[in-house]
Amino acid sequence: MNIPNSDLPRVIVIGAGFAGLEIAKNLNTDHYQLVILDKNNFHTFQPLLYQVASAGLEPDSIAYPIRKTLRSKKNTFFRLTEVENIDLKQSIVQTSIGDISYDKLIIATGATNNFFNNHSIEENALPMKSVVDALNLRSKILGNFEKALNTMDLSEREELTNFVIVGAGPTGVELAGALAELKNKILPKDFPDLDLRTMQINLIEAAPRVLSAMSEESSIKAHKYLKELGVQIWTDTLVKDYSNNTVETSTGTVFKSDTLIWAAGVAGTFPNGIHESEVGRGNRIIVDDFSKIKGYDNAYVVGDACLIQSEQYPQGLPMLGSVAKQQGNYISKAFNKMAKKKKVGPFIYNDQGTMATVGRNKAVVELTKMKIQGSFAWLMWMVIHLMLLVGFRNRLVVFINWTWNYFNYNNGLRLIIRPFKEKKDVVGIK
Amino acid sequence: MNIPNSDLPRVIVIGAGFAGLEIAKNLNTDHYQLVILDKNNFHTFQPLLYQVASAGLEPDSIAYPIRKTLRSKKNTFFRLTEVENIDLKQSIVQTSIGDISYDKLIIATGATNNFFNNHSIEENALPMKSVVDALNLRSKILGNFEKALNTMDLSEREELTNFVIVGAGPTGVELAGALAELKNKILPKDFPDLDLRTMQINLIEAAPRVLSAMSEESSIKAHKYLKELGVQIWTDTLVKDYSNNTVETSTGTVFKSDTLIWAAGVAGTFPNGIHESEVGRGNRIIVDDFSKIKGYDNAYVVGDACLIQSEQYPQGLPMLGSVAKQQGNYISKAFNKMAKKKKVGPFIYNDQGTMATVGRNKAVVELTKMKIQGSFAWLMWMVIHLMLLVGFRNRLVVFINWTWNYFNYNNGLRLIIRPFKEKKDVVGIK
């Protein structure tokens, strides 16, 4: 890899998600040479992926070119590449475009889907972890309505328009709500000749309640909102198998569905080279209070890919964007202090609360000192998400889209740019 | 295909381009049942595809959902399907979702690339006729800059950053200008560590001048604009072969380039079933003054797919969006008249002029009575294109993007959502 040598110690950051971007913003490159590696040339704002999938936003609104965030930052290099291996002992990162040595390494590779080793689900379910996933899902959903028009067989039409979402965390709940609004407001206008009574949205959750990471109060409210929109909720239910359009569950209930969307679990993901003794629960790399991999002086992990094991956080921290962001901020400032030989304290997480939106005027927000629901929570959810988006242009475009949809009940983006292809049809493309 | 039978005569329109959309808008469905077939669920505004390719606009700004244009239009059905065959004698259209009979047929399938039977070019060149083409091209262009960072071999870097555009019609000229502006304004900021001196934009044209369909005055001006932006122009030059990154031309000049963009020729395209005696120059279906296929009473062709052969237009008409739009308008109104047993006159083309933009403040416009160049022409070009876009939301988003870029020299859309794949890597996807 052609990165010029410099007298400054080289920091390699793998991954430009919430944590990586925060490091790029805050690391003092008077003291370090910064090299950022990512397999995409853009940062993805994952909390709004579900709106791309449900045809409410276009990818460019929630993706931001990494190079643009690095502009005018000196001693900083971005390379578009897949990291193949990390040699922690030799301090070398091996990539598809060559090897590169580091003085300090920060692994910020995030999380991927966790299918809990269920191969039938892994094979047939649709994930929603990346922009491409979300676009595939959109093509599949819209394509299925087009297909449903071509059959008079009611059970076939039901399969095509029965959407099963597994996992009622924020992602599952938000997608279920968005699909319900598509069904209620948009599809009847677009498909006047399709009987939408066959369309179902089934939300399956292993826990006894939706949004189980939030309070019971929020949970009950979100449940009520979902019911109002027409989402069928199946709590205490585990999905056991999904093949031939048949979803089998732990309760014996069987769903016939052509579209199973997986929002039930995530696991840390990182390149080869990490010894399994260094990996803990949820496939995450175990780090100490300082985000450092135990036994190494110069290798750190932040965000969803790390599992803090310390006295303060014996259970680790949740896999959330806000944790990743704070860890990225912490680690870059810690490095800045180290460069000036200042003392560095351990990472402390500042929990600012959680939120989820179900639909128009329907959201639940939990802050440290209060819980809010309904229209005001929905407004808060929108304002906070707009603020969190990277780039003024993105904020403006999303704001226009949302305002537009608010007054028109009518998002304009129901495009199938690339038709959905079954995995078996595609060779050579992941 | 499940289209309900009705007492009204059924009009099938194949293709929802400029002509098809115009028919959908104007055909009186009190008198006809209208069935529109297209392989995409959206209409593409082709004149701005080059801005998608050069990362200035996103696809959703120039694509518009067909179903949305048909809303609240009675007796109207859209089906997403590929037409496989037309049986003109039996009045049946055969599609991937079944057969459908018609009372009147309008073929509005447009044009595709014409590689003039040169297989090496067809195999290796990149076209720009669809949204997917434009996105592939963008991924390729941006990806090549990322790749160029990884090599110290100057000739390899030159190949990666040498863009050869074949054809200096409006599409070729506009794309060349857009790439030049990328080079001059955007890439130096995004790739501070890449030496852009190797980047070249070569525009090759068989005719003696660029924009040869316009006046010599406009041609000279456009040539000057292109030169100012740093585009190399090669007129009187035919591309003979393109393989192994080597472009061979009729003048003996050889270019080494990883990216050859084909904007040199189009040919009509339509489903099987049309007898070759019915096909004329540019692979277009021969029609009379009334857009009717000779020898058939109920089969019409409009837009790029038709070649008018009549006393009035012995040379046919140019393959332009404005012709297609007018023909679509003509034919739907002709049908409306026929339904009321009124007399129908022949199609008469109203030439409103042509235009092309090269870059910021650099455009050429030819109206019937005057020629305009420079900033005012550029402004006109923008206003007219904004007005021609379908949908208020699209106009607004494009307007914001253009205004933004005008003041910031900085479009925010340099995303490689799906990496470019060589054809040989891809099986099962066209």
Give your account of this protein's structure.
Chain A is of the alpha/beta class. The first copy, chain A, has two domains: 10-39 and 81-113 and 267-339, FAD/NAD(P)-binding domain; 119-264 and 360-423, FAD/NAD(P)-binding domain (3-Layer(bba) Sandwich). Chain A is 33% helix and 23% strand. Chain A has helices spanning 18-26, 49-53, 59-62, 66-70, 119-124, 131-148, 154-161, 170-190, 216-229, 321-339, 375-388, 392-408; strands at residues 10-14, 33-38, 42-44, 63-65, 76-80, 83-87, 92-95, 98-101, 104-107, 111-113, 162-166, 200-204, 232-234, 239-243, 246-249, 254-256, 259-262, 266-268, 279-280, 284-287, 299-301, 306-308, 354-359, 362-366, 371-373. The first copy, chain A, has a five-stranded parallel beta sheet. In chain A, strands 13-12-11-17 form a four-stranded parallel beta sheet. A three-stranded antiparallel beta sheet of chain A has the order 6-7-8, with no helix packed on it. In chain A, strand 14 and strand 15 (246-249) form a beta hairpin. Chain A is globular. Chain A starts with 9 loop residues before the first strand and ends in a 22-residue tail after the last helix. The model of chain A is unreliable at 424-430 (pLDDT under 50).
Overall 3D form of chain A: globular
CATH class call of the largest domain in chain A: Alpha Beta
Name the average pLDDT of chain A: 92
Of all chain pairs, the largest interface belongs to: A-B, 56 and 56 residues
Radius of gyration of chain A: 22 Å
Q: For the terminal residues of chain A, how far apart are their CA atoms?
A: 25 Å
